Amino acid sequence: METVLERSYGVDEVETIALELKNLLPRCSVITFQGSLGAGKTTLVRALLRACGVNEVITSPTFTYVNSYQNDKGESFYHFDCYRLDSAQAFLDQGFEEYLYVPNSWAFIEWPEVIESLLKTGVCTVILDYEGSENRRIKVLLS
Question: Does a structural domain hold residue 119?
């Protein structure tokens, strides 16, 4: 894996980080978001979706597992939250693998650890961690 971004950022810089992630979309169709509770995964996904031109209300898929969005260019985005899934088989049983690797679309996946075996190519891994109360540390790996 290649480290393509690693730095600290303040909570007021989330949009800047989202733009940096958007620039990686030509290289990856799946972006996973890892980090402890409250580290900013959902906030960063929301900012990334906005940077990609999604204008509708963006909500967390905590209880629905996946939310689907489109921008004005016809690009599709699937925002997953796998926190409550207990296995990759549960992901498959729901038919969610159909959202992965669809042409002209991207999957943004929070809590991906349970389904990592299903993610083969074109994956960016975003790892977030606390760095004090107002700052975060981000590391982005490209496989």
Answer: no
**CATH for 75:** 3.40.50.300
Neighbours of 20 (CB within 10 A): 18
Please give the order of strands across the beta sheet that includes 123-130.
2-10, 135-142, 123-130, 30-34, 105-110, 76-81, 66-70
The residue segments making up the domain with residue 89 are 12-113
Is the residue at 70 inside a domain?
yes
- Residue 79 makes CB contacts below 8 A (sequence gap 6+) with 45, 49, 58, 61, 66, 67, 68, 69, 108, 110
Q: How do residues 80-92 score in pLDDT, each as one tens digit?
A: 999 999 999 999 9
pLDDT digits (tens, 9 = 90+) for 92-111: 999 999 999 999 999 999 99
* Total count of domains within the chain: 1
- 50: how many CB neighbours lie within 10 A of its CB? 17
Model pTM score: 0.95
Beta strands in 22-130 (DSSP E): 30-34, 66-70, 76-81, 105-110, 123-130
